[in-house]
Amino acid sequence: MGIDDRPDLDVLVRSWRRWLERREALDAHDLDELESHLLDRVDELRAVGLHDDEAFLVAVKRLGAVDELSREYARVHSERLWTQLVLGDGDGSASGAASAPPGAARAPLPFARRAHGLAVALGLGVGAGLAVKVADLLTAEPTFFIRNAALLVLPFLVAWFAWKHRPPAGALAIVAGAFALAGVALNAYPFAAGAGTQLFASEPSMTELLAAVHAVVALWLVSGIAYAAGAWRSDAARMDFVRFSGEWAVYYLLIALGGGALSMLTVAVFGSIGVDVMTFVADWVLPCGAAGAVLVAAWLVEAKQRAIENIAPVLTKVFTPIFALMMLALIVAALLQWNLVDASRDLLIAFDLVLVVVLGLLVYAYSARDPLLPPGWFDRLQFVMLASALVVDLVVLVAMIARIGEFGPSANKAASLGLNLILLANLAWAAWLHLGFLRRRNAFDRLERWQTAYLPVYVGWSAIVVIVFPPLFGFA
């Protein structure tokens, strides 16, 4: 019986091989040889009565005993089951050498693939920065950058995914089609001027601002198709992209903080000797740096994967209690000042943004958790945060409906209401599944699958706000 007759084993082996393909140290011949060894061991184990998945796990463990990359695969792969079964037998520091044929000299890596593709990431980062600056020099329209921020930068991120993960042409065509559609909608619509919201020395209309923000969300998630190498229907691939997004956000924030501090220090130092570099920093360094940092953060996620795997659980354990307390405080505040109908629009939008951050933290915590561990105190704390967020969402939903009834509908009220309903559905079912996990009624991976299955809902809603809202509300 060949591997083609064993679809479950085929999926496992292809997943294992895709992961190894990301490592520049292995070429196609090396991978074929490792896969051949792996399948031989699987066949031996099946011959003594093991099922395909059991044989695969044990074979990876045994292969990992002589191959550092297989050990690393087990260490970082999203399926923590493999971590449990493959690791735990020493550090294997010498195993990488053991895996190489005796006396064989490995060919040097191509320049582009050294340091996990740093040169390619930097080149694409420079390209993203130049795209922003060239657009700045060619257009005098102040709202152009607000509308086209995602279109100027994210194609370079897709190019990085394409170079790194080699998605099929069909997947890239889908991503390109989504970018083209967003580009047409954002630049062909006759948006009206002035919504009373000043942003980057411009005053975009409300539908223009909403379309720009939701375009970033939609195109980021669509870029995940390239990251997943086209396997966007796979729950594991979607969770990998969720994990990437959370880690990317951490790195981007650190880069932004460091870059901001360095810029201020540079301006101060040059100012002390009578040289004004503020204009140069504002016009060149900040816009180009912000765009280029998107690629640098993406490179850091993959190059420093082990480091972030240690950071992610710490971050979730630090911020989950804080956000749980914040949710409880918001409930108390809402009870003390119940008339939220009179609350400002900005306050209700801020509530929604807090809920988005809470949900993001929850999903990031799911991605960093070992699904095999039994429920513990941190899971109960997460449930408190989840239940509190659900109550806050209901309070904000009531306030929004009341405001629409009193003041009439508008683009921003409709967008906020839609987001609130989407979050409510997600939080409600997530709370139900989480409660079932705490009561040991269902496995933890149901929580992960629910969140990854919900990603297309965000894409769909964002696309509606980008494409349907502007004409629906008269481009106002």
In short:
By secondary structure, the protein is mostly helical.
Shape: globular
Q: Output the number of helix runs.
A: 18
Q: Largest sheet, if any?
A: none
Radius of gyration: 25 Å
Structure description:
The structure is a single chain. The chain is mostly helical. The protein contains 18 helices and no strands. It has helices at residues 7-21, 28-47, 52-64, 68-76, 80-86, 95-99, 118-138, 144-165, 169-188, 206-227, 235-272, 278-303, 305-336, 345-368, 377-407, 411-438, 445-467, 469-472. α4 packs across α5. The model is unreliable at 78-103 (pLDDT under 50). It comes from Agromyces aurantiacus. This is Permease prefix domain 1-containing protein. InterPro entries: Perm_prefix_1 (IPR047928). The chain crosses the membrane at residues 115-132, 144-163, 170-189, 209-229, 250-275, 281-301, 322-341, 347-368, 380-402, 414-433, 453-473. Keywords: Membrane, Transmembrane, Transmembrane helix.
Q: Topology, please?
A:
Elements: H1 7-21, H2 28-47, H3 52-64, H4 68-76, H5 80-86, H6 95-99, H7 118-138, H8 144-165, H9 169-188, H10 206-227, H11 235-272, H12 278-303, H13 305-336, H14 345-368, H15 377-407, H16 411-438, H17 445-467, H18 469-472
InterPro entries: Perm_prefix_1
Protein name: Permease prefix domain 1-containing protein
Transmembrane segments: 115-132, 144-163, 170-189, 209-229, 250-275, 281-301, 322-341, 347-368, 380-402, 414-433, 453-473
